[in-house]
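Two records follow; treat each independently.
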Amino acid sequence: MTDSEIAKKNLEGHTLSLCRDGVCLTSDKRGIAPMLDFIARGYDLSGFSLADLVVGKAAALLFAKAGIACVHAEVLSEGGRETLEKFKIPYTFDCIAKNIVNRDGTDICPMEKTVEKIDDFEEGYEALVRKVAQMKR
């Protein structure tokens, strides 16, 4: 089984799954929280295959920052797809969506709005960290 296949298999019951050379990580946190945590803790995720429930532009920017090798999304937004393509990250998906919506289903996800005009993953990461801190206040 490839790392990508293992990551997809391990996604069951989780929100995020990563695999590289027999090392597998999963998370049950929602949204971009798992990737923000892994990056903040200094995990070397370069070369990992990743499976995620929902991938928008915000998540894709974090994947690029972390050096993720390939991505499978159950739901992939158009902005997420464009970002993965920009950073040459191979991807598969089950369903494509125009946008990622907020948890209430009433508007576009605030993380997606935060990075709407950002194409640099470092700038995107910093903007997302600020937005999460602002929302916690």
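The next record belongs to a different protein.
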Amino acid sequence: MGNVQNVFHGSDIEAIAERYHMDKHSIIPYASNVNPLGFSPKAREALLENVDAISSYPDRDYVSLRQSISKYCGCLPDQLILGNGTSDLIRLTFETISPKKTLIVGPTYAEYERTAKIFNSEVDTYMLKNLDDFEMDVDMFLKALNETIEMLIICNPNNPTGKALTRDQMDTILKRCMELEIFVMVDETYVEFVKDVDKISSIALTRKYDNLIVLRGVSKFFAAPGLRLGYAITGNEDFLEATANNKVPWNINSYASVAGVMFEDEKYINLSKSLIHTERNLIFSALSSRKTIKVFKPEANFVLIKLLKEGQTAGEVFDYCIQKGLMIRDCTDYEGLGEQYVRFCFLKPEQNDFMVNTILEIV
């Protein structure tokens, strides 16, 4: 199972169930990084009450949805671009900027490079290292920036390392990128899971820098990957005008628009943050004492582990866990990692206890 072609994505439940001859409903998804509390109760209620919305076109301008998101994020409604998931917004950014050369901070989500290649953008990767705990030395990074780069991509917090740059660090990077005319895309898919969002999120910086776009979605924190709702924030008026003129009408479905009340579900939001913060600390503490693994201190809702036991591979650990019904992420296919890395997300307390004990049995 250690070969890249056999590595499964976090959403590949059906493929895994078939490979291992299991009932897919018996598999606990520790690779999906989705909020264990599930969908927002307020949004669920709204969908049930508005099930017939599917028979009508949504508001072409999504006024109500924009207002909910802008209040939640602290941005202006006019700064928002709505998309069919963050993957759609990644594609839209490449389509609009058309960068000849893109720099990606890795190891990270493979969709950035895949989309860059679709748009014939040359890709360089600034690879952070295990020896540095995948932490960025910003001063060193600035030296790697140059006039040939037209777009920079940073996932913050990063998937799969779980590391995050602070807003102050991002401010420093953006200032240099502005001088070099580099457009910066920051993917904040996991930022709502961090302890202090205001210290990490770059949304406030969109009012200071017009070479910045910040991407978010509802798949992970709001446990709604099936809605395919993503949104982006930018202060770049040319970008906003270009996307407004080129966008597909009604690109967000009626149900996603109705479910926008999730951004106002404060009880659910606070419970989610509290659960993840508590479990993150407990899991990191429980794993850190084991000498046969290296545990990278996480900022999001998942943890990356390097296997140190001689000869042990991520594929072997994946096999051991899946036999117990636990689907973790074999990180072999992440460029810059390899066969010694696994990742799993945080679920409910009793599930996390089972996951941690299982990992400790095999490592």
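Discussion point: Residues 332 and 339 are 5 Å apart (CA to CA). How would you locate this feature using only the token line?
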